């Protein structure tokens, strides 16, 4: 009779172990599937800027996530090379940047840890107008359209007869 109880006890323990393993696998699967839930949010799809002004493409990660060490690429698909800013492993890679954007693009590096991936474009030119694409292998992509205007000076002449 004793061997039967040991056998039943073992069956109960193995059943509990199976349930524990099942719940652990489900829990770990949920954690893994939720990890990719961060998304890039840009506050507007179209930005208007004037020539010689600075403009910010306001984008952030939701929920907040440290983007400091991630691959972050801002580019224009119609350019060759297409990148206006590339950041990998915590460093900007100037050699990949289109020459017309040298010294004019930047990220708010002190705010990357809070998920701010906004692009700042300084001294806007008419040729900067176009579609800008943000891409990160870890986060996906989004796009923003930049429309550039130019101040025109008009002189109003009034002639009295």
TrEMBL record:
Return the InterPro entries for the record. Answer: Ig-like_dom_sf, Ig-like_fold, Ig_V-set, IgSF_BTN/MOG
A family per Pfam: V-set
Alphabetically list the UniProt keywords: Disulfide bond, Glycoprotein, Immunoglobulin domain, Membrane, Signal, Transmembrane, Transmembrane helix
Chain ranges passing through the membrane: 12-31
Instruction: Report which superkingdom the organism of origin falls in.
Output: Eukaryota
Residue spans making up a coiled coil are none
Biological process terms in GO annotation? regulation of cytokine production; regulation of leukocyte cell-cell adhesion; regulation of T cell activation; T cell receptor signaling pathway
The UniProt record lists the keyword Mitochondrion: no
State a single Gene Ontology molecular function: signaling receptor binding
Residue ranges of the Immunoglobulin V-set domain? Answer: 47-133
Q: Does the keyword Transmembrane apply?
A: yes
Q: Could you tell me where this protein is found in the cell?
A: Membrane
Classify the main location. Answer: membrane
The UniProt entry's GO CC annotations, sorted and at most eight, read: external side of plasma membrane
Per its record, how is this protein called by name?
A: Immunoglobulin V-set domain-containing protein
């Amino acid at each position: 009779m004793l061997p039967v109880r040991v056998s039943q006890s073992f069956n109960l323990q193995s059943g509990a172990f199976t349930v524990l393993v099942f719940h652990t696998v489900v829990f770990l699967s949920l954690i893994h599937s939720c990890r990719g839930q961060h998304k890039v949010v840009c506050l507007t799809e179209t930005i208007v800027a004037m020539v010689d002004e600075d403009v910010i493409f306001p984008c952030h990660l939701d929920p907040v996530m440290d983007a400091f060490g991630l691959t972050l690429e801002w580019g224009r698909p119609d350019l060759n090379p297409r990148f206006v800013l590339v950041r990998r492993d915590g460093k900007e890679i100037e050699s990949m940047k289109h020459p017309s954007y040298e010294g004019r693009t930047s990220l708010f590096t002190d705010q990357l840890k809070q998920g701010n991936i906004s692009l700042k474009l300084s001294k806007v030119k008419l040729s900067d107008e176009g579609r800008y694409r943000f891409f990160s292998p870890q986060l996906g992509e989004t796009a923003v359209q930049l429309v550039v205007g130019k101040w025109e000076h008009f002189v109003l002449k009034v002639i009295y007869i």
